[in-house]
Amino acid sequence: MSGVRPIFDPQAVPVTGVDAHLPTLPAALMEAQALRRHFASVPLAPPEWPGDGGRFPGLSPRQAAVLVPLVDRPEGVSVLLTRRTEQLRHHAGQISFPGGGMDAADADAWATACREAWEEIGLPGECIEPIGQLPVYGTVTAYQVTPCIGLVQPGFPLQLQASEVAEVFEVPLDYLMQPAHHRRHRVVLPGLSREFLSMPWTDGRGRERFIWGATAAMLRNLYHQFSQGPASL
User: Fold this and answer.
1) What homologous superfamily is domain 27-225 in, according to CATH?
2) What would the pLDDT profile of 133-192 be if each residue is shown by its tens digit?
3) Which of 42, 144, 161, 206 has the largest CB neighbor count within 10 A?
């Protein structure tokens, strides 16, 4: 899940700063067992980036959830992300987590996140080990999004919903959790000044993935959560 189709090109917005001055997380914290221990023992911190919710009055809040799938690969934990198709009215071409609005039949945020992951990319719920949640992130479109953190073992099947998801890919968790890769941007639009984060990543084939907006903000909140408590658990 990500924001609506942007009214500006985020990649063209100048970088105003890079957060390389912030602490680097220890590599040991990026291992699956340490992640489990962290969420089991460290209290949930308030979000560093709570989102843009409430900027436009008159929008009724709607509950939503995304799955943040952490794949426990032998070479290290990675984050599974999706790229939306270019044909969508909303989210077109953007990098997102699987997720969406809560249905009346969903028992809780986890039910929403797992249902959406199944519908969007065919990830079975039995492949997901829930280990924690992050604070709610408010989008400018009034969605109140709960990020649900799940560990996934390699070997899972995937079947993409072709009308919504162009591809899935993985980014090493330790790359995304290093603040030297967190870039700040500020854009000024009529009646609105907005700051957003980006975390560009280039894969082994030289293709750049421009991770930005709500997805980058939720990843930054994950970094903020990991920076709480002991340096390693």
Assistant:
1) Nucleoside Triphosphate Pyrophosphohydrolase (3.90.79.10)
2) 999 999 988 899 999 999 999 999 999 999 999 999 999 999 999 999 999 999 987 767
3) 144
